[in-house]
Amino acid sequence: MSCASQPHGEPSEAAATPAGAFLLRPMIQEIVNLTATTIPEHAAADAPLILVDVDRGHTVDAEAGAVRRILGTLIRDAVAAAAGPLAASDAPTLREVVITSVHTDDSIEIEIADSSDASGDTIGMATASAESMATRLGGSLRVYRCPEGGKAVTISLPRRRVAAGALRRAA
To answer: 3-state DSSP call for residue 35?
Structure first.
């Protein structure tokens, strides 16, 4: 379901976890579990399948609270979009959210893709807020429309923590 082509199954880097870094997968799994418990009972039949394909050894060396807010915002947004109304079609539809990650030479990229029927290129307030937080951490956020439908949001964070003073901007 992922839009971007990213390599999977990279070697685990748990042994090389820098001090202050945290494992990504447990945080994502906790957010997914909390999100699943907030789906109203009457909407449970339309709840999307949430797949987490994040290497157990992937780490993030950034402020954990900020990363949790970014991921929580984007995962909740993707689940809500995938659970939304579907276009009329004879084809069977699969409601899903797929969360993947990949390490590059200088960053970790986390993609959250949904199977929504959303169209257009506008991003909502939640995505704009997540983008602002990612930028403060020295990263970036990109939104893609997937050819097979839905959207994918990719957050790129530096592999090493950015010094707090490096992120201050002149007034």
So the answer is: helix
Cα 135 to Cα 120: distance, rounded to the nearest angstrom = 24
In angstroms, the CA 60 to CA 23 distance is 6
Q: How far apart are CA 25 and CA 56, in angstroms?
A: 6
Helix (H) or strand (E) holding 102: strand 96-103
Tell me what the mean pLDDT of segment 119-125 comes to.
Answer: 63
pLDDT in tens, 16-66: 555 678 999 999 999 999 988 877 666 666 788 899 999 999 999 999 999
Read out DSSP for 48-98? PEEEEE--TT-EE-S-HHHHHHHHHHHHHHHHHHHHSPPPP-SS----EEE
Yes or no: say if 66 and 133 are a contact pair by the CB < 8 Å rule: yes
Over the stretch 152-165, which tens digit does the pLDDT of each residue have?
Answer: 999 999 877 665 55
Q: Which residues fall within 8 angstroms of residue 36, CB to CB, at 6 or more apart?
A: 47, 50
DSSP class of 4: S
Residue 77 CA to residue 83 CA, distance in Å, equals 10
Q: Can you tell me the distance from the alpha carbon of 68 to that of 66, in angstroms, rounded to the nearest whole number?
A: 5
Kindly state the DSSP code that residue 159 receives in the 8-state scheme.
S
